Amino acid sequence: MKTLARNRGQWVLLTFMLLWIGLLFVLPHLKLFYLSFVSRRGGEFTLANYLYFFHSPLYRKIFVRTAVFSTLVTLLTLVISFPVAFIITKVAGKHLKAMLLLAIILPYWVSELIQAFTWMVFFRETGVLSYLLRAIGLTHHNIEFLYHDSTIAVGLVYTSLLFMTIPIINSLDTLDDSLIEAAYDLGGNFWSTLREIIIPHAAPGMMVGSIMVFMLNLGNYVTVTLLGGKNSLWFTEIIYNQFIIRFNQNKGSAFSVILLTFSVLFVWIVLKITKQDLSEAM
Amino acid sequence: MFRQKGLSLSKALFYAYAILVLIFTLGPLVIVTILAFNNNPSASFPWQGFTLDWFKASTPGRVGFFDDARMISAVIVSLKVAVLVTLISVALGVNNAFLFVRYKFIGQNFLYLLMLGPLVVPGVVLGTSILAFSYGIANGLDKIFGAGAGTFLRPGFWLVVAGQVSFVATTTTLVIVARLKRFDPALEEAAMDLGSSRLEAVWLITLRFLAPAMIGAAIIAFLFSFENFNTTYFLSGSDPTMPILLYSRLRFGITPEINAVSVLLMMVTGVLGFLAFAFQKDDAA
């Protein structure tokens, strides 16, 4: 009787789980995949939706730009976050540690939209930066700092900081301080200790952080469109244009599938190259 | 550790760097907070005196957040969506946690990986896939049952709820799984030996043990839902959620009112974030 009840319970749980993941994840993605391979009118099999992308120099350019830009921002975030994680785990006292942790978590709680908004307030033509520059007499005119690649980069690094820093903190937490001391005692200096001891130990966290940040950048919409305006030329934007403005679900689906395939491939290749196991690193 | 080594120079450099990081991360939030109380309609400096107009005012040319009917109705839509998404996602999270922790079955690992999918897929792709899927079904319903039968699956309230549940439920599952793993099923068996039925034992013992994780998961779910943009953007209809309305306004320019809204959001999400952290910290994996 008891085993029967257990099995019935399992079937109930499994049913709800499958309803959720099936209706809200698996079937929608199958539909997306299907739509990307059929024509808009008539619905017969075609590769035209993908060829449209590969034959368009503009879309190819936007895709490459998104991928390269995301990579550069990921590297920049890594360089900025690593010392933060190191300070939090190995240098800071209790108070500074708590303050730094709060400082990287607080912007995340406030949501990405508000993050982008605060940088708009700072960078726009009549914004805070322009005001400060005029106040100290460096310029007499307002300057538009929005809609530049560097502005987009600042916004993306800002939203990414937490996702890079936390995994590195998790790796560095397990690094015994005495190992660092031993490296010094054996004649190592700061750089050699960093290269030989600290970075190899933090590598799994650096990789998890980089993967997360890269995926978030690639799929970003809010930050790039608000800070980049018409100059953002981000891949997610052309997906939106196809789906919502042109109402072309087939081309939009093809673009979505391209974005999805690329991000999955990227993660897989990074894991292969670095010979890391994602589940182990997490 | 650097104290003993006497590396005071590198220590000073680290502290200088820490201060730069604090300025970079907190500076924008501080600026927006100051501007929310600045009596300057350009939403910028210079400081022109303290005002609460951006929170509450309804004179021509000056509308505060609490007197902005469109904004308030968007907040109400967001709250309704968030409450529903939270309830459904926590229920699914408990459901999935029991399925993955208490049972062993063929294909479980595959199903677990599939369960992580909605968190890995970019929000934009998730939104478009649900839009495309529901569009087809809504058309089908219209065809079979007459025009209007599929309306609830068109962009709007219910589709936003569905789209958010798809990835929020993954998060709640992960939070609740972490705690259920630390529960000793012997406690449940003991309750059953003492005469409870299995459901009673789960209700009285296990769910009580899970309560902190469920509350933590609920707060996170609420925050995720309330703040979501990427997925919601593709699924919302004529009654936008708060982030969607804010975004559409930001594309036309910045008003001091949005500073005020940001300050309110900072306060609410800050408190919720702290609570989620407090309820969850025992289970941090």
How would you describe the overall organization of this protein?
Chain A has 282 residues and is mostly helical. Chain A has a single domain, classed as MetI-like (MetI-like fold). Chain A is built from 13 helices and no strands. Chain A is globular and about 75 Å long. Residues 1-6 of chain B have low confidence and may be disordered. Chain B has a domain at 68-253: MetI-like (MetI-like fold), CATH 1.10.3720. Chain B has a two-stranded antiparallel ribbon. With 285 residues, chain B is mainly alpha-helical. Chain B has eleven helices and two strands, in the order H-H-E-E-H-H-H-H-H-H-H-H-H. In chain B, 72% of the residues lie in helices and 1% in strands. Chain B has helices at 2-5, 8-36, 69-102, 108-120, 123-145, 157-180, 185-193, 198-227, 230-235, 242-250, 256-280; strands spanning 58-59, 62-63. Chain B is globular. The interface between A and B is large, with 83 and 81 residues.
Flag low-confidence runs of chain B. 1-6
Strands of chain B, total number: 2
Please state the overall shape of chain A, judged from the principal axes of the Cα atoms.
globular
> Tell me about the biggest sheet of chain A?
none
Number of folding domains of chain A? Answer: 1
- In order across it, which strands form the biggest sheet of chain B? 1-2
**At CATH's second level, what is the architecture of the domain at 68-253 in chain B?**
Orthogonal Bundle
Assembly form of the protein: heterodimer
Which structural class matches the secondary elements of chain B? mainly alpha
Q: How much strand of chain A?
A: under 5%
Number of strands of chain A: 0
**Count of DSSP H/I helices of chain B:** 11
Mean pLDDT of chain A: 87
Shape of chain B: globular
Please estimate the helix content of chain B: over 70%
Rg of chain A (C-alpha, Å): 24 Å
**Fold-level CATH name of the domain at 68-253 in chain B:** MetI-like fold
